[in-house]
Amino acid sequence: MIATRRATLLAAAALPLPALVRAQGTEGPIRIGFPTPLTGAFGTEAQDQVRAAEVAVAEFNESGGLGGRRAELLVRDDRLNPGEAATRTLELIERDRVDFLVGGLSAAVQLAINNVAKERKVLFNSISQSDAINEARDWGPTTFHEALNPHMTAGAVARHALPRFGKRWAFLTADYAYGHEMVRGFQRAGQPLGMETLADIRHPTGATDYSTFLPRIAGLRPDVLCLCNFGRDQQIAVKQAGDFGLKRNVKLVAPVLLYTARLAGGGPAFEGVVGGTSYYWRLEETVPSARAFNDRFRRQHGNRVPSDYGALGYGGVRTVLEAAKAAGGTDTAKVVEAMRALRYDYYKGPQYYRGCDHQSVQSVLVIEAKANTARGEADVFDIVAQEGPEERFLRSCEELGHKA
Amino acid sequence: MVDYPLDLLALQVFAGLALGAVYVLLALGLSLIFGMLGVVNFAHGALFALGAYVGVFLLGTGWNFWAALVAVPLAVGAAGLLVERFLVRPLYGRPVDDPLLLTFGLAYVVVEAIRIVFGKQPEPVETPELLAGAVFIGVGYFPLYRVFLIGVAALVVLALWLLLERTRWGLILRAGARDPTILRVLGVDVGRVWLLVFGLGTGLAGLAGWLAAPLQGAAPEMGVPVLAEAFVVTVVGGMGSLLGAVVAGLLVGVTYSMTSLLAPEMAKVSIFALMAVVLLLRPQGLFGRPGGLMA
């Protein structure tokens, strides 16, 4: 009785506005699944990814969305575990019916997400470093890679560091895909410049003590100690290498020098460490889009500035949403086409997705950490070099196994 | 096969012993509480992190490292007293997994509280100026702070040994671990003894946390790997054996160190392999006795 009356009322209410009802009934908000390791060794970076992704979603919604359709971010904790990530991704696709996936932090985890996504033909924009995701074997037509890859990052840092700091390099490498790919990137860029690898010592990820890896490195007397690890691993390794007195005659280099690790590690420990990054907030001094993004981030998140990996969360979500706008809907094939056509400058200067592998061609910054300064605790790096957005710094499509 | 110079091997053994000293500090509190009370304290790692954060807090209010070194174990120990009195005590005499589940849950509460109060980002902790930098120890350079930790570990072990073996209170403790009923009949307030033991064990966890902070900074999750390492040391040494905790701590440290030289990617696995071998050959641990009493 009541049910019938409610149905009648609803039907009556719906009558004058059939278009609106249909828009909400069959389409609803644009749902973006966002798996990322909120807990675990990269938790700090992951949380900033979420903050920045929220900025992209808020901007989109405030500007009216896609013809009134709002965007929605569905954040899931993958615990830095490929199995967990695959499960969460599957849930996002099957149960939550997401339109797109953005996220991932860790080479192995993003490949797990990508596997599930490409099988189900869902667009996935990865915001974490990986070489493998570009390769034909792992890549799929719905795979995009907004982050830098190790080949570009390590290449830029090697080309900067080798002529300046010396040819004798020792590597202390986290024993997983990210670490291995970074070492390969350094060695490949370093070979024509005369790099000599004294040792590549692989440590278990998530190690909290590096004192037992360092005596051998000290004994080798390298010019450069390259720390190919990430997150808290990097923060602790830099601190402990300094404790061993290594910084006196050895230059510490990291493929990706993390803003968050520098904050957690402190100024004295990181001073003088050189590394690469996709983004540093002081880019705003020269790049207008960086200024706009930072200001917006500051407003939304209590006046803090975005970190490097955070900014990727913004770039990853914004590109997808802009592409959906351009495509006029969320149909995967159309959005993929729109993504491929993007020539964008959303937060760090010009970027575009390369045709064969959807790798975002973009600049790589080389930065150097400095001691605490009077300009505030966010002023932690100087940008010392920059490699422009050029395809010659990427591996060729043929090498990756893509048909030209 | 690479040839390793003797200097390097010696330095590597030293690095292992220094790391072992850290492990000893980690494991003592866990071992003490299990040995005396039969409680497996799963909150040990969380209290370790709490120790680091109490120190960070004190530093922020103008204290120096040394003053915090005294205050932190007292503060975390006091928290331990409250935990024993109001949470653990009602569970004595119940199956061993009851206090285990309680402390397991408590660990989550403590870590989440740290996240709420201090935020999720790790905090940097500088090495105290007096102990910063590296010193030459005959075979190579080694961080001065780690040499200091060897000394601290030795002092703590000595103090604990004197307390347990050479004082009346220690006598009561050891008797209480063997037969609380008889002790009660003799008119000793066993409840108070257990309270103090729990406070002492948690205080040691806090001390270890603050001592570890200059090595790795403070992070809410910093106790998670520590709990696993402390358990390895306690199991290898024999649950509840003080001597066992010391010997096993050093053994685990040297095992980790030599593996990191010869097969670095195996370093983490090696200590678990060591534990498996010990358990196969001596299920009660190197110095453990059935009943898990302090040696």
Description:
Chain B: Pfam families: BPD_transp_2 (PF02653). The complex is a heterodimer of chains A (404) and B (295). By secondary structure, chain A is an alpha/beta fold. Helices cover 43% and strands 19% of the residues of chain A. Chain A is built from 14 helices and 15 strands. In chain A, the strands form 3 sheets. In chain A, strands 7-6-8-9-10-14-15 form a 7-stranded mixed sheet, sandwiched between helices. In chain A, α13 (308-327) crosses α14 (332-341). The longest helix of chain A is centred in the first third of the chain and has 20 residues, at 43-62. In chain A, 55% of the residues are buried. Chain B is an all-alpha fold. Chain B has a domain at 29-223. In chain B, 72% of the residues lie in helices and 2% in strands. Chain B has 11 helices and 2 strands; from the N terminus they run ααααββααααααα. The mean pLDDT of chain B is 91. The chains are: A alpha/beta (404), B mainly alpha (295). The A-B interface holds A 39-40, 43-44, 47, 175, 201-204, 206-209, 211-216, 218-219, 232, 235-236, 239-240, 243-245, 260, 263-266, 268-269 and B 5, 7-8, 11-12, 15-16, 18-19, 22, 120-127, 132-134, 140-143, 145-146, 215-217, 219, 221-222, 225-226, 256-257, 260-261, 264-265, 267-269.
Describe the structure in brief.
The complex is a heterodimer of chains A (404) and B (295). With 404 residues, chain A is an alpha/beta fold.
